[in-house]
């Protein structure tokens, strides 16, 4: 792998400086790779390559772009095992999770974009003599996180390139190996030089340089709300478009008439990917008559959730991604022990694991929305259970957060589910365990961000709207 180089203008090139960073395997706490870290000269070179490639790429036929994207998809599928092992090593996804969900999410979104792109119209008649044109915005800086590497890289790169934009990708420095492999796939697919570029680096370095770069027309970022605010401020001086997919503190409202598996399903969803998902249902709101039973069920799910190394097969959860994340989660669990009632898990590693960033699946009961564990995005396998008495109280509790990404509703009363779903202030509301369809818009309200990803909605993110009078079709 090209860990010591960047992909700029169709070539793997040496970095401008000698700065490097170790990539740590979170299951072993050992160095698994060392990557080069970019500086301003590297960022400038990548942006310049993207800018130079934009005029020609933006005018290519739609069919030509589709052909290259289809070729990329074929390469992605053929090298899925390589990608799964990279993700498993760099961020701790167990083998089954890496192969099925981490890699599968990428294929799912590629297919969703290709399906949406097939019938996508870039020109529409507004009147008999006036057209509305959708045109690529230009050079796009794409800054992606470590928790679902392929999910987020593909949600940004594929629609940007499909619509005629050129891009500079900065994957997370914590999980960069999958991004480097992705660049290899793009090169093998044969995209023209400069259409796709990759520079590794951290947020304060390359991330900030891209955010304020005068030749970058748009920044698409997925990560923490804190970083999203910093990027928005950096981008303000050049008035570039900023699309943000940020944090969450999802409420899972379980009414008394919910199905028998609702609690176990919700707890397991919270613990999936070791709790490292922005859309995780980390606040379980339970109607009072079912509350005591729910606490027992959630605790049992936590205790039954096996934790182990990412290299092992099975349905267990792996470590969290880094020492910094491990320490943050441990500190918040300590705070939770003082605020609420610990019914499962707690601080320290699970039994039998004395090395690696492993966290015990943890459940707190008797939580209220004033507690820090109910308000902070912990980003670990930690569930807070909150009782409620009325439908109105459940809605108020769910909405009482700075976040608004995904909420969940469990009830056998269809009218109630729809009524509550319409009142929840979030970009997505999942009900009764029914997942979203391919191409559904992914994104949030409030401090969870301001853009939408996936399908036709994701294509629109990278387009400008132009009105053209006196239109004559060619």
Automatic annotation (TrEMBL):
The entry's keywords: Oxidoreductase
Enzyme class: oxidoreductase
Sequence ranges assigned to domain Aldehyde dehydrogenase in this UniProt record: 12-467
PROSITE patterns: ALDEHYDE_DEHYDR_CYS
Catalysed reaction equations from the record: an aldehyde + NAD(+) + H2O = a carboxylate + NADH + 2 H(+)
EC number(s) given by UniProt: 1.2.1.3
SUPFAM superfamilies: ALDH-like
Oxidoreductase as UniProt keyword: yes
Signal peptide start-end: none
Annotated GO MF terms: aldehyde dehydrogenase (NAD+) activity
Keyword Lipoprotein: no
UniProt xrefs under CDD domains: ALDH_CddD_SSP0762 (cd07138)
UniProt superkingdom: Bacteria
Family: Belongs to the aldehyde dehydrogenase family.
Protein name, as recorded: aldehyde dehydrogenase (NAD(+))
Name of the coding gene: ald_1
